[in-house]
Amino acid sequence: MKYPNFLRTHMAGYIGISIAVVVIYIFIFIKTMEFEQQFEHTNFHDAFYWVVSTITTVGYGDIVFRSVIGKLFSIIVQVSGISMFFGILITLVVTPWFEKTMKLPLPARVPKKMSDHIIVCGYNQLVETLIDEFQEQELDFVILSDDEEVLRSINKKRIPCLYGMASDETTLENANIHSARFLIANMSDRENANITLTARKLSDVRVIAVAEDASNVKYLKYAGADRVISPKLVLGRFIAKKAVDPILGMVTGATEFFDGYRIVELPIYSKSTLVGKTLLQASIENRTGAKVIALRKGGQLTFDIDRNDIIKNNTVILAAGTVEQLAKLENLAG
Question: Nearest CA to 170 among 140, 143, 202?
């Protein structure tokens, strides 16, 4: 079983401390046996045997202390051993086994009657924006991914999802691709090409592919995508529009990338109330309905954003939403 990095670090530290404690107990055992003049037990293997059997509360009783000091030491080892041994056992064995056993299986197929729905391959900030739109318009959809952790997270939010490789024929058939309205390939460019090829082999469903690299747009079209969207290319076109018409308003000049949804670049001005806040503190989505999908910091556009990223007066936000939502965000920007 795989553990998160912080848990692996915690376990490594816990085990390291436990080993150090065992070594100290062995040393004290030998010295105490010397004090009691039980020289036949003043060796490492007897010491290790006694410490382990005492820590695990087995206590065979074949090696015992006779003095008050020795008995007090035995009590200390027994009491500390309970938490130390069972702490390791529960952390490394019981808890992972319990979590694995209790996890409900992820959905492997959609209902057979499901039709005229949207299949979304992959999950990220852009997909979160689309989900809001789908739910608002009461459209049927399903998120398809082989990332178990991500699917369990969205499954808790009661968002329809399906576990499997998006480029696998069986997975797409389990998603009822033959009766779907369209499919959105929103993974890496290579995966999107494979998804498109597989979808084309199975059905004539309309395929919309999202290109990470604008130079790959033509290859995704060659693979059979009906439409290819590149957020970076859309942003470039938007900037070009502003260059041609500097007076063009931010929201009115937004570029449509999905029916009813637009993408826009908004600079944050020094007087904005957002300056100095993290994305989490700014609560942009809750306040405006618009979704932040990328940030431009120091001239670099990044789609790998974190809710702890701080908004500065030179930050530029790439946001998606309806005209009304983006207008609210424009007011917040300053």
Answer: 202
pLDDT digits (tens, 9 = 90+) for 118-143: 999 988 777 777 787 788 788 899 99
Q: What is the pLDDT of residues 68-84, one digit of tens each?
A: 998 899 888 888 887 77
SS3 assignment, position 182: strand
Decide: 80 and 56 in contact? Cβ < 8 Å: no
CA distance 92 to 44: 27
Q: Rounded to an integer, what distance in angstroms lies between the CA atom of residue 146 and that of residue 194?
A: 15
Helix (H) or strand (E) holding 237: helix 231-244
Residue 197: pLDDT over 70: yes
d(CA 1, CA 12): 15
Query: Which element (helix H / strand E) includes 293?
Result: strand 291-297
Q: Token digits for 151?
A: 């699917």
DSSP letter at 299 equals T
Angle, helices 5-35 vs 68-89, to 10°: value is: 160
- 3-class secondary structure, 291: strand
